[in-house]
């Protein structure tokens, strides 16, 4: 299945580069949920994290290796600087995976060599060679990235790559770390490598890039024409700064424009064989999951997965669409798993029908989770006549993908209106099991609730983002509240869904506080100096 030269390898780095996005902190269970969905989506490689960076990262890579790194599962990868301790940590964390890869990197540009590494070109050449060989002593599958490749002197870059391949690198990844190059410059760089690195045919050529100028996807598609066969990308394009190349855009570009790309992969123009191994009908669900768990909302006009991506407003377009969908639509919404959002269940549907539908949607819940979700479904079905797939997914996500419940919201009550002072009362169970009640006034009902919660919880924080979105259409729709708050320079997100947006707002806040509280109290903020440095360097790959 792997290493096919005539197909594109999708390397997903949502859990590594994506998780480096500001405010995008995922706990171990959330990472596992995303990894499971990425496997269902059919990615070839999951970069699960940076094992050396923290004990939490190590555990996440190890757990994903154990549970997702099965015989028929994807390759599980860990990032590692070209330093023995990093590579050893990656190898240890990856041990349980059937197919594992160590991804090691070192900078090759003069400016990084002089100011960051303080090493000569020949020293870096030796390090690259030795560290690839060291990684190779643990795993067969070794990826090497020359950091800041775009600003490296070409002749030196070719020399480093030649040595890395000779030392055993099976994938050579070329990053445009700062998202500076135009697509044609990026294509030229790939062509230069293909033409000047004598043993390049012994490795798969990969690309990595950032969206600072909005060019990452375009650059990757250009690189394919000159021999790139692996694309490093993230769901919804999340990542450092303006983010990475978006997986869904790359995959759908290759899907919709297969005839254009076929010849570059040595196929006949009309070949029907998919260019990637991705199951495109899982794209929409994966996008929603990543957005929900990271708190990084998808903009409505985002290509492929935005709320408006398949909406036609103009009268001329609507008329054309009714006559023939292909008049104004280059792809079918169903190809990304966006169904017509059918009504599936009602208030008389039983537990079995509920479980069956969830299974069809890809959710296999344990009995206890199923019971909790079923209670929520019954509550919803009482308020809302027709329940859709999106409602069900929203309930399940809400019930199963939450941070540890340290503080529990027992009751929230507000009064507000014009000529009234918004006032909220909350009752909260603390991690110590105490039940505390307090009340506060605010500029509006949500402000009053948050002030009342703060009086009980007493964890200093600033609310930096609050948004409400409806999951489905109609006045009885479920509202989803996503919030982000800041505590000592770190950002934590919380999300909740309910037909009552006041309740959802309170619960989302409690969820964010739980995430903050569990992070602060389990000591994972106290990382060693070396780990902090490692994190900073990973940020630049
Ligand atoms: Mn990156």
Structurally, the number of domains stands at 3
Residues in helices, as a percent range: 40-55%
Mean pLDDT: 89
State the CATH architecture of the largest domain: Alpha-Beta Barrel
CATH homologous superfamily placement of the largest domain: Aldolase class I
CATH topology of the largest domain: TIM Barrel
The description of the largest β-sheet is: 8 strands, parallel, barrel
Q: Please mark out the parts with pLDDT under 50 across 5 or more consecutive residues, or reply none.
A: none
In short:
This protein has 18 helices and 16 strands. With 541 residues, it is an alpha/beta fold. It folds into 3 domains: 15-300, Aldolase class I (TIM Barrel, Alpha-Beta Barrel); 339-400; 408-522, Alpha-isopropylmalate synthase LeuA, regulatory domain (Double Stranded RNA Binding Domain), CATH 3.30.160.270.
